Each structure stands twice: as structure tokens, then as C-alpha cells.
């Protein structure tokens, strides 16, 4: 089966928003073993939408459309689809009732433009939208399938998983060629260094293939195998993964959808450990990332953002002499912060980050990007020095990544 | 002039990463008055790359390519371009010296695969990369122009602004049709409500057009005008913007690239005010967003993340009785947090957020998404109740957005 993705919205073409839906659908289609050769992006214009739908239906078995189903006047996917199918738009009474119930539940009045969403091309099916107002539409056309989903990512994702996949793939016989991928997530070394370390392995590989991608503060290695079935594909990936793990060791922090904060959180929860965080240059980002993990209250009770020297002194008793002699961005102050936040927070571990995120704040001896990390535990304190490149937000993120990695390596 | 964007990378097709480069280039091309009708996404495969380049050069005057110029073996843009141009790849000695100097500056050895980046098709020009190792390539082909840029967003953006725009548009005579856009950023009301409030204005508009987009915790209204020149286009936008501002009032927090945290930071800096933040359910996100703004140390000295009841008691003296009688997620506790963090932080303003981010933590009377905000100033304390929809990270973000908006409206 050959699939094509069409992303609808002038805001996409003009770059007002980035196309996360196409990325989501691409990922899921790959996992489902469906080939994707084409992706189109089209604006909110009925004529161009019709042309894009026709082109897609001429060359692909399955067309997945995102966007243009909402209540506003520039949402034209319904109209374009009806034109392509040669069907008129009909009001679906079930959909009207569903919309009315949705607004009643929210305690808000239903505006007139919302009623537009209850229209569908005659002969096409509605797809339930559990997370929003715009239903999806599934239509068949000359043996091809076209599925229109709303553009709001959480609505599209839920609809795709809960409604579209079962309808399209539920009866799959498994006869088609299956592609399986596994991504190894690395942090603490760059893309070139990572690829150099495994250049000989990459060279001899054809199935699975290995591709490396540089992310902010991490590198991803994607292993992709093709086989007759999912199990065979996974069996091809396993020995290669083992070989890469032997070579790269601790640099691998996780796989696929793992996050560094998720991996760290799991280790803390398993170990029954409590962490206290003192952040200066990261400004709350480390705490934010850790508290993105459901259940983080098991290990995270408090974090102190000691942005100014006064805050470092008042909240963490960092001695004046340390600040004067070494400066706030120094191994000495990082260590004092980590030790004290551990005590103040009555925690097993104290993590501290102090650095210069830029663009201001640099001195002749302390450049933008200089960051000290410290991790205090009973009787010991590890201190690390890093120099990160990039803009302010990149430095903050790289520093948070290194801090979480320090924690991860310590918790092995 | 008609432009086309080609994004290169199997990781894009398979959805491993989202295509922010295409969004950036789309936005900039629109601002430069260049029409974009096509966007293609292609994997790391020389044959398919060649086909995509040929198709693009057959229908577009300007082809902007991102990605596939790096040092690794799956970077094939150079090779594909050479094939399309019918030119051989030659080693550029200037580029070799540049690469060597780059690695010397970083204090790292230059690996062999990095040398690949110094090859370009004979007859094509290199474009300097001030932020990374891979140079860009500019080639002319049968009166068309093709520009290849690295896929790392900060490298692409800098190269496009500093090198590509001056070469392609520097001598523009201004005779072409210019499109100008202005985006009004709203928070505190939904997309349907916003569009309903201005439905009559939208209906009568053709140039400029108005399009509305729903973001997380905000709505964007984009006004787009087309005219012979930039000034004429802007003159069309101005009266419409004034009309919308009169109708929507305080819901508009900024325009174009503004951020809510940036707007709030500017007001705090202008007013010479110091803010202290106490976060529970947002876990550091409000502080993180505020400290993303360069110069935030002028108003932000400390933030307390009081995630547990113990932390609320110890760091902010929240009375046991309040926690027991009303619970941590209550207007009473929000108010106590805001007042105390203001005192502890010796600040003009104290901002507090307490709520249930989910998925756990809900009670029969307190659902996931319930959030109380409080803002304490000398002699007064504002308290707000919100119920946000969405997953954990969405609730955190919406809560941070509402907290920053409370601050913004108070600072008018």
C-alpha cells in the first residue's frame, strides 16, 4: 500500500506553524509498514485543494489529509472533498446532536459557525472526534481511500489511533512488507563523534540501515529493517542494536519515544530517592522537564531558582566570600548550591546548575555558554564544567540536558 | 517569482523530526513577496533526490533545499545536485582551510568524514556557514536558481538571512507584487469566540484577508495584504488592524514574533518592578519562560517550585490549617503562596500557580485541569480560577499562559 499525506493550511505554507501532524502521520505509517512517497502542503483555497486531492488519488492508495475541517470560513476541506467526489454536502443530524452535547458539557453556547462541521459529502462516513468539535471524514473513491482529519494535533492523533487505524489496518493479513525502526538516543557526544565511533558498522550494514540525526543536546541513531513480518524485522534489528550498545555504552540513554527526563525520573522512583534542584542559568527548565513526567511528585518536592546572587545567599546560604572570590559561575558556587539545596530540601540528591546563558553576562575569562553542574549526595559532590554553543535558549536546554545526564550516569 | 521548498531527510518523511526549516523559509519567502506553490519532502536517497530536484527546476524559478549537506554517509544533496547539473564534484581548498580553522577554534580534531563537506559541484558557488561546518551551495541551471542549505535550523536561518537573501533579493527593483502579513496574538479567549466577535469584519474583507489559527493557549489572527509595494501593503493592513484592536481590546497581547513572556518582561523592566514566582503544578515552566528573555535578571531574582505540601509549608509558611481545610489546590492557598513569595523574594509582585496537571491527583470536586492563580501586590491580591483541558503538558502550558496573562493585564 502506498500512502500520501496532504497537510492543509495557508499557515503551513507561509510558515506560521510547523507541520507536526505530517511528522506524526509519517511516523505511524512507517510503523504500520506503509510506504510514503509523497507529501503535499496546500493552502486554504478550494481550487488548489481539489487539485491536490485529485493528484493524490491518481497516484496513492491511501490519502491522509489533516486540517481544514474547523468551524471557520477558511476551513474548506469538506467542500473540496465533496467536489472531488462529485457528491453534495448533507447535514448529519447525529453530528449536530454530538456538537450540541459537546458545548453543553463545556457550559458554552454553540455558535452558528460550529454547525458547519456537521456537514459531510453524501456517501462518506463521519469519524468521531473525541477531543474536539470537528468530525473526521472517510470516503472511498475508485478503490482508493481518503481520510480527512482535523488539524489540531491532539484531535488528529486521537482520531488516527482510535478510529482510523482500526478501520484501515484492523483486517490486515500481514502479507505486506513491514518496516520496523528502532531509534537509539544518545547524549554526551556529538553526531560526528558518534558516527566515527561506529563508522565500520554503518559501512557494512544494508538491512537494517543506520541513520544518524543531530538533535539539540542529543544524537539519534535510527535502525530500520524491512522484512516480511514485524517479528522478522525486529529480529534483524536486535543483534545490530546489541553491537551498537557494546560500542557506545553509556552514551545511549534510551530508545524511541524515551526522554532523558523520563529515564531519570524512572530511576529516581525505582530507587526511592528524593531530588532537590537549585537552578540559576536554566531558570526552572530542569524542574519543568522533570515535572513533565506523570508521578514526578514521588521524587520531586521542591526546586529553587536562585537567579540573583541575593537569592543564592538568602535561599542557599552561599557564602559571600565564594561569590566574591570565584563568582557565581564557578565550581565552588555550584558545589555549595548542590550541597545546600540537598539539605534544605531534605533530599537524597542535590542538583545545581550555574552558568552564563547569554547574550549578556560574559567576562574575559567566562564566555557565554560556560556552565558548572554539581550533584551532591551523602558524603560526595560531583562537579562538571561544560561550554555550550548556541543562543540563550539553546544554552539553557543543553545545560538542562547535561544536568539530567549527570544525574542519569550517577544513578546507573 | 515562484519558489519551491525541498526538505531533505528520511527522518522528515518518517516523522522523526518536524520540519521547522520549511516553516521558516515559507515565512520569509512570504515576507519577501515570493509566491510558494509547492513544497516537497524527500528521503536520503540519491535517485529520489535527483527526481525531486528535476521536478522542482521544471516548474519553479527558485528552489530552496534544506538538509543533506552534513558530514555523514547519508548526506547526499551534494552528489544529487552534481548529477542534476551534470557537473563533477571538486574539492574546494578554501573550504578545507575554513573547516580546519573551525575545528581548531573548537579545540577538536577534524574527522575524515568532515572533509566531505568541502566538495561542491564544479561551477557552483559555496555559501559561507558562520554557525557550523557544512557550507551551502548556490547553482544556476537553465535560468533557474537552486540554493542548498544545511538542515540544522540555526545554520540554515543564519545562512539564509546573511548570505542568501542579499544574493537573491539585494538587487530587487520592487516591481513584483508584495505580500505583507501582520499577525495579532490573542490570549484569554478561544478561536470560535474570537472569530465570532469579528465575523462581520472577516466577511467584508478581501484585501487584506483575515485568517485565524488556534494555538495552545492562544489564537493568532493573520492579516495578509497584497500590493505593488511593501508600503502600500502595510497601508492596507493598518486601518483593519485598528478596527480589530477596537473590537478585541485587551485580548490582543502582541503581534508577529512577540511572545507573552517577552511582553510581560518588557512591562516589568519598564516599570522597574521585581517579580517573585511560586509554582506548584507548572513545576518551573513560568520561571523558565520568563528567564528565556534576555535581560530577565532585571526583574527576576528567584522562583520557588513548591511541589509538595511540605515545600509549601517550609518555603512559604502556608499554614497547615489552610492546606487541611481547603487543600493545596484552592484559592486560599494560591493567595497565601503569592503573598508570601512576594515577601520572601523582597519583590513588588508575587505570582503563584497551584493546580492539578494530571493524569493523577483529581478528586470528585477537583478535576484534572483545575488551576488557581494569584497575583499579590502591595495591599491587594487577585485570585483567578481556571479549568484547562488537555494532557499534563498542555495543562502546564495553558496554566503558565494564563498566569503570564494575569500579570500582563495587571501591568497595563
Please tell me about this protein's structure.
The structure is a homodimer of 412-residue chains. By secondary structure, chain A is an alpha/beta fold. Chain A folds into three domains: 168 residues, Molybdenum Cofactor Biosythetic Enzyme, Chain A (3-Layer(aba) Sandwich); 78 residues, Alpha-Beta Plaits; 151 residues, CinA-like (Maf protein, Alpha-Beta Complex), CATH 3.90.950.20. In chain A, 41% of the residues lie in helices and 26% in strands. Chain A is built from 15 helices and 17 strands. In chain A, the strands form four sheets. A six-stranded mixed beta sheet of chain A has the order 2-1-3-8-7-6, sandwiched between helices. In chain A, strands 14-13-15-16-17 form a five-stranded mixed beta sheet, with helices on both faces. A four-stranded antiparallel beta sheet of chain A has the order 10-11-9-12, sandwiched between helices. In chain A, β10 and β11 form a beta hairpin. In chain A, α2 runs parallel beside α6, α3 crosses α4 and α10 packs parallel to α15. About 1% of the residues of chain A have low confidence. At the A-B interface, α1, α2, β2, α7 and α8 of A face α1, α2, β2, α7 and α8 of B. β14 of chain A pairs antiparallel with β14 of chain B.
What does this entry show, briefly?
Chain A has 412 residues and is an alpha/beta fold. The first copy, chain A, has helices at residues 10-13, 20-31, 46-59, 77-85, 93-106, 153-169, 191-197, 199-204, 230-248, 260-271, 285-291, 309-316, 320-326, 331-344, 392-410; strands at residues 2-8, 35-42, 62-66, 89-91, 119-121, 125-127, 136-141, 144-149, 178-186, 209-215, 218-227, 252-255, 275-279, 300-306, 349-355, 370-377, 380-387. Chain A folds into three domains: 2-169, Molybdenum Cofactor Biosythetic Enzyme, Chain A (3-Layer(aba) Sandwich), CATH 3.40.980; 178-255, Alpha-Beta Plaits (2-Layer Sandwich), CATH 3.30.70; 260-410, Maf protein (Alpha-Beta Complex).
